[in-house]
Amino acid sequence: MLKIENLKYIANDEEILKGIDFEFKKGKFYVITGHNGAGKSSLAKCLMGLYKCSGKVYLNDIDITDKSVDERAKLGMGFAFQQPVTFKGVRVIDLLKISDKPLKTYEDILLKVGLQPQEYLFREINNTLSGGELKRLELASVLSRDIKVGIFDEPEAGIDLWSFNNLSNVFTEFKNSERTTIVISHQERVMALADEIIVMKEGKILTSGAKEEILPLLNV
Amino acid sequence: MNDINDLEKYMLNKVADLDSKPTGAFNLRVDGVGVVRQNSANVEIVPKDNSKGIDVYVKPNAKKEVVYIPVLIMQGGINDLVYNDFHIGENSEVIIVAGCGIHNHTEHNSEHNGIHTFYIDSGAKVTYIEKHFGHGDSMGKKNLNPVTTVYLAKDATMEMNTVQMEGVDYAIRTTKGKLQQGASFVVNEKILTQHNQFANSIFDVELEGKSSSTKIVSRAVAKDNSNQEFHSNITGRCECFGHVECDAILINNAKIIAIPQISALSADARLIHEATIGKIAGAQLEKLLTMGLDEKQAEDFIIKGFLS
Prior knowledge:
The structure holds 2 protein chains of 2 kinds. Chain A is an alpha/beta fold. Helices cover 31% and strands 28% of the residues of chain A. Chain B has one domain. In chain B, strand 3 and strand 4 form a beta hairpin.
């Protein structure tokens, strides 16, 4: 599905990713974990093309190494940022409408992430929204698109009032629809949803495998 | 209205959202001449003696009135100066849709200088919508210099939504207000300049009455080699509240100078100014790229929202 070979990423003369090989399989749920600075978010951004890196990236056996971010998005990749941005004057519905082939109605998408459509659909995405609301909208923006691979950078972070059931339901639905889910997380409850866990350390994959094998090693 | 051509209809739609003759009070000025005029039961439009403008009278206590007074300049070489005075009766509620569109396909400059003065009686509520638009590729400039002066009596309110769309080569936009006790003046301004265009927005609001308030929010996008200036001064002479905010996006080689000034002449005046100018945030572009928009589409999306 999504395969990387010898992926390296250098920033400020420091090697952040030190040659990573891995294959993410179709319909599987992966959690990438590890200490701060291990390279998790860098790996996620390299997969999406947000960071320029060396090595190879294949999506369904097509070499997408030189594809731009929007080209990768058009090929079916989606990305939820750890820190969502605001857009002055842009309403929630404007952002969701970017998808020309939404899988669900905009109302259904908002309900999926625990936001009431009548309250949020025509609301401006500005700093009157709380961090938790912005995180949910970030997730909604990914759900609005017909994607094959969803990459989520700490989707549960920093949201005290987040109903974890919403997030769990979203990921379960992803899995059931044969989409590949890649989540950066430190949280055991997110790892409990995973098929496989990838543990990173100092820019490399320390270990990976089924969650039943990996979780006991993590002492979480 | 039946006599206007398709281009005039297009321009009218752009500046006043009109597809046909409205039912309420209406005055259409084309190339310096009033061509259509109609009154309503509560609104009377009277031409000035020298044909250089109109007086609009809204009766006291009139409700839900909508007045359209668009202006079109359809030729090159026209310099139109018009004085429009609005006399808004107490406790009335009215929406006034103005706006000017210039179409110029000649090498001669065309210009419209609309001098609008509002006398708003106590308790009246006015919503003023003004759009400016330039159309036609030509050497001749399309210049618009609106001057809006607002006198708000006790507890009167005015919300002014003013937009300068594409195509205006040169604009000096002046807005002045004097507010009595409890009056409120809200201005939302949106300006887009591109190519080598220039726009200067000047606001001068005096809060003279106790508990009067004003909020001026200007959002500007300057592209290419265009230049914009923003000058505002809110003067508070008593217990009052004023807030001015200039928010601008720069693209390419454009330049913006913003000078928001607040003058508190009383210890009870509470005045705030903010100004933010910068290019489009990289994080915003990245988010939209991950949703499948290319860089140009992402930029257009952000600008459209910002100026909406």
